[in-house]
């Protein structure tokens, strides 16, 4: 359940929207009482195993290839600290604070389910770090996405030990200093706790939660921008007729067709079938089919990520109800890897078809409009190079769309002989989303400019979108620094819905 400023986590009901709110709006986290009771029960299991000297993976044994090495009871705490320090091997630029916060929220929720054996105080420290804005510095490179996101999550836990680095109130500092500045104290990990904190899919899932949120905005805005292009080119909205899409009943296709008609309602700039031409080019006529397929992909990914937000993904898993301790593979990131690759391809297709529509807008042989949307062609280049840029970015996306999930490199002396590369897939997805917002922004800019050369009332949705871009960017009369306009258009595309 969610209030205006607090999200209560119980391990079972965390939504993607709530993760995004914790990450970006800095909403506070509280733990449900029933979750804390489950945490206490699973912790009691761990303490019983240690006291009775049972041989259980990761509790009284080493890790990975060292799973057959039994650790004496007096060393189990040192084992957990060693695990964190040795596994904190990330490299590259750090994740933005919003990704780190999403990771922390997801890990807290997974631990709150009560199957991981963590102590209450350790879980509460992680919660308070998130609530007070102590954000560990977590490098982006280094996760194989099976055995979970070991390296990224180890960097998160370093700060809990008073080690590593963190960002606090805008400053980067040693982890211990950040804890002290926030009024917190480091923890000494006990049996199972290090493994409970780092064995999971929370880095890739955090990236996916934010990507799913951003992708929804792009999908909705792609429909209204496409509708603007339809008007600018006097397109034929009959191709969006509901009866056509009823006989090929993909839900996303039907929704995109409905949205296009909604955005074009009342427009005086579209044409009837056969008036100017019998059919439009595919980049106009097939918008529902292409955008709709992306909608269907988004629906699948949304459902998969929602399940992962409320899953137990560490190892071993403790079942206090039965007393079973089961070593398995819930940490394997393949479900998220495939979801990230699928959404990356789907979002890239929004950019692919958008660039083709931009070409139709700027090419006088295809548009009937002034070449490159300038009345002073020759002296002025107008929108000539904007299409070059869109083509370049679309090509970059095609390279990035190579699926990470089909790759695997064995690790831990071949004990971990198949891995997901899910975090790589999710990182690539984030780049593709940013790239696609740029390409859609270019089309948005060009469509608005093309509308300047026509007459007649715009549609109900396109009028709103046109007004929004004109509040930020005036029409192009003479050549100017186009990159400034393009960045503003990108910000409008990525920053929220163009139509209320």
Task: Walk me through the structure.
The protein has 500 residues and is mostly helical. The protein has 2 domains: 6-200, Fumarase C, Chain B, domain 1, CATH 1.10.275; 208-495, Fumarase C, Chain A, domain 2, CATH 1.20.200.10. The protein is built from 19 helices and 9 strands. It has a 3-stranded antiparallel sheet with strand order 4-6-7. Helix 1 (16-24) packs across helix 9. The longest helix is centred in the middle third of the chain and has 31 residues, at 202-232. It starts with 5 loop residues before the first strand and ends in a 5-residue tail after the last helix. The model has no long low-confidence stretch (mean pLDDT 95). Pathway: Amino-acid degradation; L-histidine degradation into L-glutamate; N-formimidoyl-L-glutamate from L-histidine: step 1/3. It holds the Pfam family Lyase_aromatic.
């Amino acid at each position: 359940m969610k209030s205006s400023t607090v999200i209560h986590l119980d391990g079972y009901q965390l939504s993607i929207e709530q993760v995004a709110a914790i990450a970006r709006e800095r909403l506070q986290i509280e733990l449900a009482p029933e979750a804390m009771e489950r945490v206490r029960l699973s912790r009691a299991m761990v303490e019983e195993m240690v006291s009775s000297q049972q041989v259980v993976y990761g509790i009284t044994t080493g890790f990975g290839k060292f799973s057959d090495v039994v650790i004496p009871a007096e060393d189990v705490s040192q084992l957990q600290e060693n695990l964190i320090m040795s596994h904190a091997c990330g490299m590259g630029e750090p994740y933005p604070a919003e990704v780190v916060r999403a990771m922390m929220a997801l890990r807290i929720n997974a631990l709150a389910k009560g199957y991981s054996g963590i102590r209450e105080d350790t879980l509460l420290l992680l919660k308070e770090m998130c609530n007070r804005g102590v954000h560990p510095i977590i490098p982006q490179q280094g996760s194989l996405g099976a055995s979970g996101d070991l390296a990224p999550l180890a960097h998160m836990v370093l700060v809990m030990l008073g080690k590593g680095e963190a960002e606090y109130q805008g400053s980067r500092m040693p982890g211990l200093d950040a804890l002290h500045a926030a009024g917190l104290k480091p923890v000494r990990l006990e049996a199972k706790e290090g493994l409970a904190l780092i064995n999971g899919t929370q880095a890739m899932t955090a990236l996916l939660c934010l990507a799913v949120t951003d992708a929804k905005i792009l999908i909705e805005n792609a429909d209204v921008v496409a509708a603007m292009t339809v008007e600018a080119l006097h397109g034929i909205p009959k191709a969006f007729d509901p009866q056509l899409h009823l006989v090929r009943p993909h839900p996303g296709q039907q929704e995109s067709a409905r949205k296009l008609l909604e955005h074009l309602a009342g427009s005086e700039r579209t044409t009837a079938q056969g008036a100017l031409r019998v059919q439009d080019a595919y980049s106009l006529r097939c918008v529902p089919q292409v955008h709709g397929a992306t909608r269907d992909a988004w629906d699948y990914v949304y459902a998969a990520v929602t399940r992962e937000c409320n899953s137990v993904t560490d190892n071993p898993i403790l079942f206090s109800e039965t007393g079973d301790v089961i070593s398995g593979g819930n940490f394997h990131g393949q479900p998220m890897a495939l979801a990230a690759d699928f959404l990356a391809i789907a979002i890239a297709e929004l950019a692919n078809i958008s660039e083709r529509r931009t070409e139709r807008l700027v090419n006088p042989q295809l548009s009937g409009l002034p070449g490159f949307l300038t009345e002073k062609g020759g002296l002025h280049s107008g929108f000539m190079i904007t299409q070059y840029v869109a083509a370049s970015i679309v090509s970059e996306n095609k390279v990035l769309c190579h699926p990470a999930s089909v790759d695997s490199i064995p690790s831990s002396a071949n004990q971990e002989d198949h891995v997901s590369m899910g975090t790589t897939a999710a990182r690539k997805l984030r780049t593709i989303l940013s790239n696609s917002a740029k390409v859609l922004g270019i089309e948005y800019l060009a469509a608005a400019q093309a509308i300047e050369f026509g007459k007649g009332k715009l549609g109900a949705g396109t009028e709103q979108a046109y007004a929004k871009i004109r509040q930020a960017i005036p029409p192009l009369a003479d050549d100017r620094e186009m990159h400034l306009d393009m960045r503003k258009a990108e910000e409008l595309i990525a920053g929220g819905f163009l139509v209320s």
